[in-house]
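pasting for ref
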Amino acid sequence: MGIGVSLFLIAVGAILTFALNVHVGGVNMDVVGWILMVVGALGLIVTMFIWGGRGRSGPTTYVEERRDVGPPV
């Protein structure tokens, strides 16, 4: 799950929980909204954990060319 999908689930869950007052037969929309927000938050945490280390790399080794030394004999 990517960052966009996680944010979408959080937003839809917040809308269902806080903005709507809809009663669907046998389904509590507030609970559905909370579940979507929790799933979105967990997806966001997992995505950040997985993709967070990709920008870091190990130590960089620089190689310099020396021009003051003659060709090998």
